[in-house]
Structures are given as C-alpha cells and as structure tokens.
Amino acid sequence: MQATPQEYQFHQRLRARGDPIAFAELAEWLYDALVQDVSKRAGYQADPILVEEAVGQALLDYHDKPEGYDPGRMSLLGYLVMSAYRDFQNAFAREQRVQAHQVSLFDLALQEDEGAGSLENLDDQLQIEELWAVIDEMFPDPVERGIVELIIHHVHAPEPYIHLLHLDELPSNEQIRLAKLAQYRIARRLRRNLTRWLTRTGEEAQ
Amino acid sequence: MKHYKPSLDRLAQLAQERPNLLAGPLQLYKEQEGLDDQQLATVLGCELEAIPRLALCERPRPAPHFREDVEHIAAYIHADMLQLAMVIRAAESREALSHRYEAARPTLLAARDQDESEEPQAPDIAASEYESSDGSSR
Q: Which of B9, B53, B54 sits opposite A181 (nearest CB)?
C-alpha cells in the first residue's frame, strides 16, 4: 500500500525543510498509533519503554533523512512500524545480553549487602564494586541515586518514587506522570551507561 | 507502574540529541532557569501539554525567516509569540555559551595540569594515592 494523501503531504513538508512544525505535527499524529502497532508486533509482554524508544528512534531517523522513505512503495505508517520494530528487536537482543550479565552482578551485590558471606569469585566482587562506583559517578544526585536503587530493587509501585521526588503535594495524576517520567529517564540513562560500561569491561577482558 | 500510556514527553526527551530541533536548547534553558514544564508553559502562556510539541519543532531559521517561523510555532502551540521568541533566543544563547565553555574546557584542564605539574614533586606513595582518587585506576 502506498502513502495516503495525508502521509504524502507530511513527507513533502519534511523533505522541503523550513516548515518548523511539520515534524511535531507528524509525531503528534502518528506517535500513539506507532507505539500501539509496534507493541502488538513485539507482544504485549514487551517492555513499553523499549518500544517507545524504538518508535522515537524511527521517527527521529525519518526526520533526519526523509529521503530514505519512498512514498510510492509503502505507507509511511508501515515504513515507520517496520523501522521501529527492527530497532526494537536489536534493542531487545542487546538488553537481554546486558541483563543476563547485570542481573547476576546485582544479585551478587545484594547478597553482599545482606552479609551473605564472602564472594568466592574475586573478579565478580571487583566488578560489583566497580559497578557501584560507576553508578555513584553516573548519579551523584542523591534523589537520582535513590531512584536507581528503587529500579534495581524492582520497585514498581509509584508511591516510593513520588515520595523520593517530593511530589506529594501535586495532584495525583501529575504525581504519577512525573514519577513515571523520572523513572523512565533514569532507567534509560542507567541502561545506556551500563551497556557502555559492560561492553567496555567485556572488551578489556578479552 | 501500571497504566502505561505512550507519551510525547519520551519522544521529546530523545529529541534532545537532535541539533535541528528545539528540544535540546529548551532543556538547557529549563535546567539553567530552574523551571519545570509547567512553569515554562506559564512563561509562554500555553498549556502544559504543548511543551513536548514545542520541543519537537524545528529551530526557527535565522533572519529574515526567524519571525515567520516563531509565529508559526506560536500559533501551533497557542503560545504568546513574543515570549516564545524571547525564550528561544535565550535558550540558543545559553546553548552557544555552554558549547563555548565545553570547547574551552580541555584548555582549562590542560592549564590546571600544567599548574599541578609545576608543584613540588610528592613522594611516591602520595602520587599513587592521587592516581587512585583521580579515578584512573578504578
């Protein structure tokens, strides 16, 4: 299916450059539908943050290079879903690799916190210490550091985040919106920095 | 964290890395002014929901298009045109200053290293402690 007339119009506006609101309007129009379609493809168990990140990347890549899309070949929505889903799959595979490593490190770190005894593997212990040092460096702000700890301890309820962020005075929908946004931002920074760190330590170990 | 709902806020966050969009300079402006989205919306005379849409707009082109582009953006987010022009100008100046500062940083650090190297030499043990506190051996 080719681009719809509305998609074609957006495409022309983006290609022409110089229309300051074309991309914002396109995003406003397609974002929810894209997230929904990519979530459906990825399965409803998929991490919604990863899905949204993939959709965001696909939209921004299209913004940067609209000429990569041929409106005569397929619809813009289809093109962006395809591109976002590909990004999602890559991110998911990367995430799986990182998590496999990360979970074992955090589990060891938590055991250590609970005084479960010395770790047999010195390399792991050194890596955990290094990991927390890296986290300390990444998040010097005590509030952000507190959110990191909630994320690491898999706290899903919004209340601890709201409390930590001092949002208690705000209306409850605003509390939840800001708490989710903060959690999203910090989880994203954490994931990105840890991926970088784990990749670097992996390369050094080889 | 149930009731997950897609949000343009997240796209606006990703867009901060795109130099052609307003997301980056606006974020810097908010950080430096200590404003949250609600306060920025009040300054601009628009709804809170308009802020991520503003972040996804292209930066206005320089004169002679600047006014035309700002008018276009202001109409899109239903904001006060003059306030928007002032915020965009301020955001871009701050960004330019911060880039200049970043560019000057290696020189400043080099100058500091130079000063340190001119200090009397510390005993070996102190030098190794300095290395570890500097993070290089962590």
A: B9
